[in-house]
Amino acid sequence: MLKLVVLISGTGSNLRSLLESIDASRGTDRPIEAEVVAIGADTPAANLELAAERGIPSFVVRPADYPDRAAWGDALLERVLEFEPDATILSGFMRLVPPRFVEALAPRLLNTHPAYLPEFPGAHAVRDALAAGADRTGATVMVVDNGVDTGPIIEQRRIPILPGDDEAALHERIKVVERELLTDTVRGLAEGTVNLKEIAE
Ligand code: GRF
User: Fold this and answer.
1) CATH classification of 2-193 is 3.30.420.40, yes or no?
2) Considering the chain, what is the average pLDDT of its residues?
């Protein structure tokens, strides 16, 4: 059983979708042999109800409680390692994790991004795609490295930008694909068809 720790900062809708996909697969002939063993956040404002409603352990490690980013990253890493994950997923986690965190967990450290990387990296990918007047964008799941959304790409898919799209509508359409890519990747990790070491080489 693949043990996952997932880190969120916001609504956690992509995490909710992953949890529901794993649950739903249990009733099929191809169950996803993965389990979210803990949910972490950088702020108590994150939707940790996702953990409480499922009896999953959760933790919050707030940057404001530490003297600097490196110390925060070390504290966050310590909490993640308590659960001995086979992979750690950043899902709407809106912080840049520090080098020691990446060093300790990558390449079994994944993130999803609401753009077709390397297009539109950073925290405003959806808005940037609209502002650029692009007619298409995408969603990407990748291995985290020390850059901003520069890690090795595991899977990505194109998504059209439709006339009249505003940021919210486009982001929702992108999230649907992000969720599919994330579920595919978790399934691939559990079944051994996704090899993160090879991808990250
Ligand atoms: C996702 O699009 C993710 O790629 C981006 O923020 C969104 C997270 O949404 N970083 P949610 O918290 O899963 O609803």
Assistant:
1) no
2) 97
- What positions carry a catalytic annotation? 113
What is the mean predicted confidence (pLDDT) over 17-30?
96
In ligand 1, the atom with minimum distance to the C-alpha of 15 is 13
Please tell me if the CB atom of residue 146 comes closer than 6 angstroms to any atom of ligand 1.
no
Nearest CA to ligand 1 atom 5: 92
Omega of the bond leading into 107 within 30 degrees of 0 (cis): yes
Can you give the residue ranges of every domain in the chain? 2-193
Could you tell me the maximum CA-CA distance found in the chain, to the nearest angstrom? 50
Mean pLDDT of 135-151: 97
173 lines ligand 1 (CB under 6 A): no
Kindly report, residue by residue over 85-120, the tens digit of the pLDDT: 999 999 999 999 999 999 999 999 999 999 999 999
Distances (CA, A) of 200 to 5, 104, 106, 157: 20, 14, 9, 19
* Residue with CA closest to ligand 1 atom 6: 92
